[in-house]
Amino acid sequence: SRREDIAALRDLAPSASILVEVETSMHRHGVPADEVAALDLDGFDLRGWTIHLPSGASLDEGREMARIVKQHPLASRGIWFSHLSCDDYIALSKKLDVPVRMRVGTRLWLGDANAYRVTGTVLDVRWLPKRTPVGYHRVK
């Protein structure tokens, strides 16, 4: 999700059901943190927010991302988190006053290399400063 993607979707399907992804330290996809609070989602059927954390993510980053989402008037729709341990997920869900959900797709398929075939399509290009850690394992 980027602000311009949401604007384009508004032209194509103004009442679409959506989840909005917030950019994390992975720098993969998502609305930048400093744009979340003012994001115009009027008319959409917002199902919630998704936080795709790096592999082995920290509870601290999860808390910070939740704080960012909670600045938006529609934060109460719920937040999906990936790559938190079960204990961290439970701790976070007890602290937040919005619905918290666990994204579990990676745990279901990533463990068995025979379960998938790797292909790729470029969906987005993000220019970042040199040596910015990126990806699941935050490689520089």
Query: What's the shape?
Result: globular
Low-confidence stretches: none
Using the CA coordinates, give the radius of gyration: 16 Å
Share in helix: 25-40%
What structural class is derived from the secondary structure elements? alpha/beta
Largest sheet: 4 strands, parallel
Give the averaged pLDDT, no decimals.
87
Number of strands: 4
Report strand order across the widest sheet: 1-2-3-4
Tally of alpha and pi helices: 5
Percent of residues in beta strands: 15-25%
Q: How widely separated are the two ends?
A: 23 Å
Could you state the order of secondary-structure elements as H and E?
HEHEHEHEH
Structure description:
- Strands 1-2-3-4 form a 4-stranded parallel sheet, covered by helices on one side.
- The chain starts with a helix and ends in a 31-residue tail after the last helix.
- The chain is 29% helix and 16% strand.
- The model has no long low-confidence stretch (mean pLDDT 87).
- It has helices spanning 3-12, 33-36, 59-69, 86-95, 105-109, and strands at residues 17-22, 45-52, 79-82, 100-103.
- It is of the alpha/beta class and 140 residues long.
Secondary-structure map:
Blueprint: H1 3-12, E1 17-22, H2 33-36, E2 45-52, H3 59-69, E3 79-82, H4 86-95, E4 100-103, H5 105-109
Parallel strand pairs: 1-2, 2-3, 3-4
Concise summary:
This protein is of the alpha/beta class and 140 residues long. Helix content is 29%, strand content 16%.
Characteristic terms for this protein:
single chain, alpha/beta, four-stranded parallel β-sheet, globular, 140 residues
